[in-house]
Amino acid sequence: MLLKEIVSAVPALGKLAAANLRLKTAYELKKTADILQKEVDFFEQERRKIVEKYGTAQEDGAVLIPAEQRAQADEEYVRLLSMEVQPGFSRLQISIS
Q1: Tell me, what's the pLDDT at 54?
Q2: Are 3 and 78 in contact (CB under 8 A)?
Q3: Are the C-beta atoms of residues 49 and 80 closer than 8 Å to each other?
Q4: Could you report the per-residue pLDDT of 68-85, keeping only the tens digit for each?
Q5: DSSP letter (8 states) at residue 97
Q6: CA distances from 11 to 15, 17, 30, 71, 74 (A)
Q7: Using one digit for the tens of pLDDT, what is the confidence trace for 21-58?
Q8: What is the DSSP track for 50-91?
Q9: What is the rounded distance in angstroms from the CA atom of residue 69 to the CA atom of residue 66?
Q10: The whole model's pTM is what?
């Protein structure tokens, strides 16, 4: 599974968890979301490293990546998103009724 798939899926899992689900399904969904959140936390940590490596802090707190370094930063970011990860969870079947 690609890291970008997990990063995209976690917000949807949060919305799904708010639905009225059977107790066992809600429990399994919560376990899965917790496992995937660890992958998202790793992604955020590495993304920050890329921004700090190539960016320059502005007075307003924003970080600006200079145009001459943007291609390198984008390349590292794409590599991060394309990273293959193996989170330890099994697929859930959720019936909608």
Answers
A1: 96
A2: no
A3: no
A4: 999 999 999 999 999 999
A5: -
A6: 7, 10, 13, 28, 23
A7: 888 888 888 889 999 999 999 999 999 999 999 999 99
A8: HHHHH-EE-TTS-EE--HHHHHHHHHHHHHHHT-B---S---
A9: 5
A10: 0.84
Q: What's the token pair of residue 85?
A: 């990860």
Paired tokens of 46: 């590495």
8 Å CB contact between 82 and 46 = no
Residue showing tokens 């809600």: 26
Any idea how long the chain is? 97
Give residues with Cβ within 8 angstroms of 39, minimum separation 6.
Answer: 3, 6, 7, 85, 87
